Amino acid sequence: MDLQEFLHMNEGDGELSYSQNSFVQKGVSLMGQPMLESAIQSIITEVKSPSKVIKVADMGCGVGPVPLAVVSLVIQNVQKKCKELKWEENEMPEIIVFLNDLPSNDFNLLFKELLKMELLKRKDGVPLCYLMTTPGSYYGRLFPKNVLHFVHANYSLHWLSQAPPGLYSEEGMPINKGNIYISKTSPKIVAKAYLAQFQQDLTKFLKCRSEEVYSKGRMLLTFRGRPVSSDASTWQPWELQILALAITHLVSQGLINESKLDAFDFPYYGASKDEIESIVQEEGSFKIENVNTTAQHVAHEMEDNVERAKIISKFTRSFTESLISRHFGEDVVELLYEKFTHLMCEHLSNGESAEHHNIIILLNRS
């Protein structure tokens, strides 16, 4: 299935929307804020550009608080550095932010949110900022050569361009039956197939950006990864583990055909810090300037497990529903996420973790 045609985060600003449920993504973006600030301020003095315009791309921007924060931080840090350098207002660079995601992204809502921002209004001493959309896959070229000063991708690059083709036999039969991702019951080749797809995708991303980013330009990339101590051949995110259990339950109830489960492969890879660094070094276009790993407990402020499970269910639904409804049909969606909520509550009540492991890496164009 062609993910570009239908993969999207939940639209609108309602209770189940991505906009209202991307609090995890916002939290991890705040963890990378010091690197973002450092990168933007370095770019102003280091990057040679024929025009006085700072060009930024937010790739896989989605909607909600993260792209709003990125635009705001870029403006604020350009302004801050210009004040430090004692530049006059006519010396201050203007800014263009290119907002990139697949065409199915809710760009209409995104612009409604952005145009409410005070920083985008013309004021003395504040750099002018222009917003543009660039729909398309970031695993291909999106811009002409030497256009971008800074690229930001928050919780984007763990999404694969496709489910790994190596998950099927020569006869076209699924080899990871009963699973939607890597699991303890998966054949060893499954983890290898996922890693190979991730390596291919990230290498493509780096090669494309190496053409588009100025020398000494920066990229700040944040991944949902896996712990250093985890086993790559068996580790899976707890959301996907519980989602698989919920689907299996509906299969046992006769509401989903077992063959549908066997043919569903979630297009995600939770890379380790070492795997990401190795791919960057092997591709060779960017130098690693800084890297940090963080852990984040999802909705940890909620003490009641029932309420916490409901919040986590809405969070998970906001980024998985387009795939679920497309593959299994819209008629099972409500039942599936109801079961997910129930299983999530059990998971929390048993003292199991609901933690995200993140890798934040700042790259410098060689």
Topology readout:
Elements: H1 3-6, H2 18-21, H3 23-31, H4 33-46, E1 53-59, H5 65-84, E2 94-100, H6 107-114, E3 129-133, E4 148-154, H7 188-212, E5 213-225, H8 238-252, H9 258-262, H10 273-283, E6 286-297, H11 305-328, H12 333-349, E7 355-365
Parallel strand pairs: 1-2, 1-4, 2-3, 4-5
Antiparallel strand pairs: 5-7, 6-7
Helix pairs in contact: 4-5, 7-10, 8-12, 11-12
Name the average pLDDT: 93
The CATH superfamily is known as Vaccinia Virus protein VP39
CATH topology, what is it called? Rossmann fold
**Total beta strand runs:** 7
SSE-based structural type: alpha/beta
- The number of distinct helices, counting runs of at least 4 residues, comes to 12
Order of helices and strands: HHHHEHEHEEHEHHHEHHE
As a percent range, the share of helical residues equals 40-55%
Distance between the termini: 36 Å
Task: Explain what you see.
The protein has one domain (3-365): Rossmann fold, CATH 3.40.50. It is 43% helix and 17% strand. It is built from 12 helices and 7 strands. A 7-stranded mixed beta sheet has the order 3-2-1-4-5-7-6, sandwiched between helices. Strand 1, helix 5 (65-84) and strand 2 (94-100) form a beta-alpha-beta unit. The mean pLDDT is 93.
Attribute tags:
alpha/beta; 366 residues; 7-stranded mixed sheet; single chain; 12 helices; Rossmann fold
In short:
With 366 residues, this protein is an alpha/beta fold. The protein has helices spanning 3-6, 18-21, 23-31, 33-46, 65-84, 107-114, 188-212, 238-252, 258-262, 273-283, 305-328, 333-349, and strands at 53-59, 94-100, 129-133, 148-154, 213-225, 286-297, 355-365. 43% of the residues lie in helices and 17% in strands.
